[in-house]
Amino acid sequence: MSGSYDRPTGPPTLDPRRTRHGHDFDTGPVTQPPTHVSQRPRPPPHSHAATGQARPRPRRTDPSQINAPIVPAGSVTGRSLTLVITIMCFLACLTAGAVYMMNQSASAWLRDIASEVTVQIEACDRPDVDKLVADVASFLAAQPGIATVRPLSVADATQLLEPWLGQSDALRALPIPRLVALEVDRNAPAELDGLRQTLKERFNGVTLDDHRRWQQQIRTITRSFALGGLAILVLVGAATTAIIISATRSAMASNREIVEVLHFVGATDRFIAREFERHFLRLGVRAGIVGAIWAMLVFLAMPTVMELLGGGAVTLAEIRRLVGIATLDAPGYFLLGIVVLVIAALCMLTSRIGVYRILNVRQ
């Protein structure tokens, strides 16, 4: 028929100009569904859909790894460094505690010596020596600033000489001087120089000893021990500083890539140094507490150890005279706490200075 439109009898064809990436801009995506079930795509044999297993969930990042420190505890310092710092703090606490106990004992000695005065009466061929001792005691009791007056007998004076001369009947034949022990009032002490001159003028052969020479010797010995303890503390501090500097250099070398990345992203030297400070501060506190506890146990066990080693009552008495009761009081334990804080602060400051020096050298 003329003028009629004949429909195409074959399959539809697509104009390449109207398609792009398999899509027809008029009819949508160009797909041909499979005519049979066997022609459908199958999943790979090892996929979860083929095996029937559940699809694994994506792994979550551990928050502790996100906030992990720049200086890991295990990679920078091991047990050896912690042990060395503990030993250093133990020695420092032991030295500080020993010096403190000796100082306390010396102070007690000085207080006792300063409050006690001895009056010596020569007994060379004097038949009235007992009457002279009574007169001197009565005169001293009436003086202002004198708390108590106690005359010593011949037996008491002989007992004072037995540690040097031993027990012998010859001591009774010797002209042993008679002694009068005085206790000075600590609130309003007497004028000892004037009292000495008065006794010398009023009584013949009577002298007053205020133990100034012994006080000076005790002060000298105490200062010597204090200087020796201070020298030991300085050496311990120097050794700790050298150890921390070496550990800081090792830490910087092992974390060099991390430090470079931090510098690349804009981290400052102060931020990096702060990480090292925190690490070594925790290390110093932890090791210092352990060292201080061991030092406390040594002070507490010292009397028992002396008894086990064969020291009797005399040995323990001599130790108590030398260093007091051989144990620390509350201020002594507080002093050990200060030593722990000093060791921790030394570790922190040393690591900070070491990190700054290493970073400045690299720049």
Short summary:
This protein is an alpha+beta fold and 363 residues long. Helices cover 62% and strands 8% of the residues. β2 and β3 form a beta hairpin.
Helix fraction, binned, reads 55-70%
- Poorly predicted segments: 1-8, 16-31, 58-66
Structural class by sheet pairing and helices? alpha+beta
Biggest beta sheet summary: 4 strands, antiparallel
Number of helices: 13
Distance between the termini: 95 Å
Overall tally of structural domains: 2
Question: Radius of gyration over alpha carbons?
Answer: 46 Å
Annotation, overall tally of beta strands? 7
Side-by-side strand order of the widest sheet: 5-6-4-7
Say what oligomer this is.
single chain
Order of helices and strands: EEEHHHHEHEHHEHEHHHHH
Q: Globular, elongated, flat, extended or rod-shaped: what is the shape?
A: elongated
